[in-house]
Amino acid sequence: MWWLIIKYKQGKMMTTVGIIIIFLLAGALSYGFYWGYKKNLSIMKETAKLLEEYFTPTRKYYTWIGGVVGFEAQYFLLDGRKIHVKLILVPRHAILYYPISLLLKRRDKLFFRGKLDLSDIDEKHIIKRLANGEVVVEMNPNPKDIKKIKLL
């Protein structure tokens, strides 16, 4: 009879440890979500600010993509031209998928579509040449690469 009491107490002990592990895992996932959310949001703000300083648009329209996954922007410039920009970020807020995306070598991407001067841009960045003279270019969202974009 005494061995039943020991097994019962051991079972309760395992349940308590299991609950503690679940709480710790939930806390780590919550922290990872907010860390990734803030990181992606700061990258989006910095990129939008840099693009606005660089192109100085008269009008601008932003569309959020999936919360903090990225945005699409249309910039209307002084001379009547317009440029489309799309920023897609690695889902840092999805803490269980983030290590998989690193293993798959996913990275942040910045797409430009417009009539661009391609003299400073490597051929590997050019995705598509459109019939109306516009070009679609993929780059990293960092200041060094953004400064390579020049309009015709």
Structural topology:
Layout: H1 2-55, E1 59-65, E2 70-76, E3 82-88, H2 98-103, E4 109-114, E5 116-117, E6 126-129, E7 135-139, H3 143-146, E8 150-151
How would you sum up this structure, described in words?
The structure is a single chain. By secondary structure, the protein is an alpha+beta fold. The chain has one domain (2-151). It has three helices and eight strands. The chain has helices at 2-55, 98-103, 143-146; strands at 59-65, 70-76, 82-88, 109-114, 116-117, 126-129, 135-139, 150-151. The strands form two sheets. It has a six-stranded antiparallel sheet, covered by helices on one side. It has a two-stranded antiparallel sheet with strand order 5-8. A hairpin with a 5-residue loop joins strand 6 and strand 7. The radius of gyration is 24 Å and the shape is elongated. Residues 1-6 have low confidence and may be disordered.
Low-confidence stretches: 1-6
Measure the end-to-end span: 89 Å
- Give the helix proportion (percent range): 40-55%
How many β-strand runs? 8
Task: Find the structural class using helix and strand composition.
Answer: alpha+beta
Coarse morphology: elongated
Overall number of domains: 1
Number of helices: 3
